[in-house]
Amino acid sequence: MQQVILYISPQIVNSNTEADFVRVDLMEEELITLTQVIQDVQDIEKLFTDYSKTFNLPASKTNNKIFKYWFNPDFNSFNNQIFSTARIELNHFEFKTGQIQLNEVVMKDNKPSMYKVTFFGETVDFKNAINEDQLSDLAWLSNFNFVEESAITDKVREGLKNGLNFTRDGVLYNDAIIYPLITHTGSYIYSSNSADFTNPYNINASGANNTKRGVLKEDLKPAITIRIILKAIEEQYGITFKTGEFFDSSALDNLYLWLHREKGKILLNGYWNSYGAYSRTAGDVQLENSGNKYGYYDISQGVFYWDSFPDTSFSPAYADDTTITVTITPLASFTSVVYDLNMVNANTGQVLKATNQISGTQTFVLKINKDGSGGAMLLTDVNTHPAKIITTLNANSPIEFNYSIKIDRYVRYAEFLNLNWNSITINLSATFAPTTATQSPISGNININEQIPKLKVKDFLNGLFKQFNLTVFLNLKKEIVVQTLDSFYAGGETQDLTEYVKTDTHTVGDSLPFSEVDFEYSEPKTILAQRFELLNNQKYGELNYRVDVSKKNIYQIKLPFSQMLFERLKNIGLGNSSTQCQVGTSIDEELNPSIGAPLIFYGIRIVDADEFINYVKGATRPEDGGLPSTGGTRSSLDTYHIPSVCNEVGDSVNPPTHNLNFGSEINTYTLTDYSGNNNSLFQTYYQNYITRVFNTRTRLFKFDAVLPLKVLLTLTLDDLVIIGDRTYTINKMTTKLQSGETSFELLNEPT
Asked: What's the whole-model pTM score?
């Protein structure tokens, strides 16, 4: 018999924090049983390697102190809604770590008799922390907010052509944001035929009306890399996904989530920027007239240029602080208009200050300096070039207001030496009026949290785990290890348990009671995917894996994501020759803007394309879908991002290495079916496991065993088990810790 020792880290009084481990008193007669499962064949969608068990603890003095007399409602010092860290030892050898939750107290004669607790695997703490949080609650995502259009840059064009790079916390995130060729309203064509030059969605770069048609800036929405979302989850919950595992694999390279939260255009609630028209048109206003040491305000652009203090004659500088005070005063008839105000470093997209849903006269104070000391905002990249600080105001209806900016800069050298102080106040006025009362302008600040689809964090992770057949567990370093199921089993050892197993009596049963397993995405809401389902009697990208028609049960694995059927355009003015341009269209059968489940896709950068596309900024599509009455500024692009279910375009012989379809759909870019071998999700991540489970020679064996301590401490769920002349994988194991009595569910390796 093993001695079982349980330790709990008690909560500190009036706090959710924990103290050092305390040994818990156990019931003398009760055996503690632990069930472990990795991929239950009866529940092949299981995601976590958690184990759990509910058992009783005596109401001893030690245990009463740990749980702080929770049974008495007059005390409020223990919170049973949170988990306490726990550790189980066998003969003083560490066996399992996890979390303990208090469920209830059994009372006898109005006195506590025992505590009912549940011991969980460590990943439950992560799942509990996530709770019902939305992706939009991930605060770290705000690091990737950006000004869609500044005085210098057009980020939509840049995101379409090259992708947007961000440096955050000293880390460079290349192509963190892209603008893929996915329209939220119309449907693109490509035609060199002059008769089609009046089609507002003709993206051919040549011919007439090219300042009014093509890819308009307002057609597109950004997309963010999946890895950045995973990083935001780490930051939000204080966890670490182990490097070198699946989340670092090529399967996530150029994998994006489309920022399509609402139907149609991005609603930015109107936009006014501080480099617009002012009543004052004087030249630059400088804090110091000699050398711009302290920065200056450019009236024509509404930009405050700020440099770290350059004078090195006194070293080191003791302090270098700037305070910017902005006052917005709406005119009398506009005091009730709701607006948002942001201060932004236009060079980097760094949001320095953000205030939302306010009205009336408001004053905003921003303190900045060169090192972020004293509670000031640290500006990014100021050592590379001067910061360009602009003020943006977003309103949902016309507004006229007076704008005042006061700038105070304070520089103090080494103690007792010198003091410099400069101050200016600039009074301006501005007017914002949207194009129409109902349509929002297309320029402004892109706030990632406001644009990310409505999806719970846990559903996002569950979706990824289902999509790629992943399993997750904690290693000894408390890192969350995310692996494909095949990789998990490949990391195990082989243990011969024959001498510990009762082979004289055991049962053999069917591995799965299902006739088929259905792998599918959420219901399609876009026209091409809907038509595909109508014509093929199944959703695009899904797979129905059928095995035994005699059984009636169907197992469904359904993702919280949508699958879009992308289309490679043909030049309809040049004999329907194929272009290199693939597009997506988010409209329904009635040709109206649609919103479905979140879309995950691969963004592929086409470089030096033979077919140029026409990009236009500054033109607004009319509601009737015709050509804009006023043209904009056009660019002819031979480099752009296309959306795809594959990570690369591939060719007619070799399929792309990664494919987001479960089934063997024809590749939309190469129009090749690759004889069904297209590296689909099923083929890459599920086939080995599913085909083995459904193999006619596979059985579910149930054995009883008595395992010695050395086996209990070393046997893990990824191990292969030898019993007699057969090899098995572990489906489930239930162990009485004191006695070592273990019940196994094992799947034989078919020969």
From this structure: 0.74
